[in-house]
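Q: What does the assembled structure look like for these inputs?
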Amino acid sequence: MLPQKSEKIPRATIRRLAVYVQVLENMARNNIDVISSGPLAEACDVNASQVRKDLAYFGEFGVRGVGYHVTSLIHAIKLSLGVDREWRAALVGVGNLGRALLHYGEFKSRGFHFVGAFDCDPFKLGEQVYGLEVSCTSTLKAAVQEKNIEIGVITTPPERAQRAADHLVDAGIKGILNFAPARIVVPDDVHVEYVDFFHYIYALAFDISTTENR
Amino acid sequence: MLPQKSEKIPRATIRRLAVYVQVLENMARNNIDVISSGPLAEACDVNASQVRKDLAYFGEFGVRGVGYHVTSLIHAIKLSLGVDREWRAALVGVGNLGRALLHYGEFKSRGFHFVGAFDCDPFKLGEQVYGLEVSCTSTLKAAVQEKNIEIGVITTPPERAQRAADHLVDAGIKGILNFAPARIVVPDDVHVEYVDFFHYIYALAFDISTTENR
DNA sequence: TGCTGTGAAGTGCTTCACAGCG
DNA sequence: CGCTGTGAAGCACTTCACAGCA
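A:
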């Protein structure tokens, strides 16, 4: 991890960095070697100064008069975010969504590996999903320690999300990605990111509703 | 849709309203009739004034000295967001993720219905997924008009996301939910919400990385 | 000359503090 | 008396504008 230059980095900046990586990787695939903040900003739908300021939180990656070298910028951002390595994750809740995520190739290709799948339904135990055997949630703690798992992914129905979170916390997990449409309560030192489809759907519904007559 | 009292509503407010609904619905299930801004704020991890201000954008839903009536507040927020009705959606890209979303029960139970599934892979055409027949993307426009579809959901691989978006725009869709890890370009009057898992994973990786030694 | 990196200015969201009302 | 609704203050992020360097 790159020693970040500055103190407090806005959360909004972190979110945008992930977008920059995505857009830059696309540019790299199209054999673009160098990019300046203007076009990069346009492709990411933000202001050019914003791009420069975001990057400046972590270092001086550009060349004045020229711009940024695409592949080294990708590397620098990934290093800054801490995603320049493999991450091992456990999935709790092997329903439709859980199975889809286990099969979703993009994760693996970006260094994010599921190495455990857990469920409390006895009918699912022992089932093989994409090379993983579904295990009882009670074995989560042992698996986390044994397999060095750092991230927990919750894909249970909403009413079981809190229990899944409790298991993950008990197992020593410090980062949770919660796909269940429910809030969960965890200790302060555990980070949670909510991926709630309804947040987006509701926002979209609002946008459509408020613009349709104008 | 409730005539919103005030001018420009912060996007952050819209996102939080979706959280309030979720938490309030959970309270309603637990037979809580009345809630004041303090405990509601705590459950949503925000400030109490924030809750009051967010709600005040749309009207005066509370009773001074008492609080908010849970079920009427849920209704009022849904009305304000425009989610007090059914929405019909088309899904483009019937891969693992697409299939999982089509099967995901929470959508239907919250008034969000998939009434079309599209893919350009000839091997998938005609296949039945959760009661829907997979159709060729070239038939999208006709289906959108015929079935009154208002929202398009993109679950293609990243390299095909733009083409899917183009088809949806051409069909007259004004709201797109993009699950593909790729930016898409659309006209100004089309709303896009990005559901990019990597935004969350990267943020989580950053949080874990920056706190693990302290 | 062209584009980065950055202090300063601008903007908008959040929090405070309290008047107002049931 | 308690809690909402809200102007005003505070704070944080964004944008501007330009100095500085390749």
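Chain B is about 45% helix and 15% strand.
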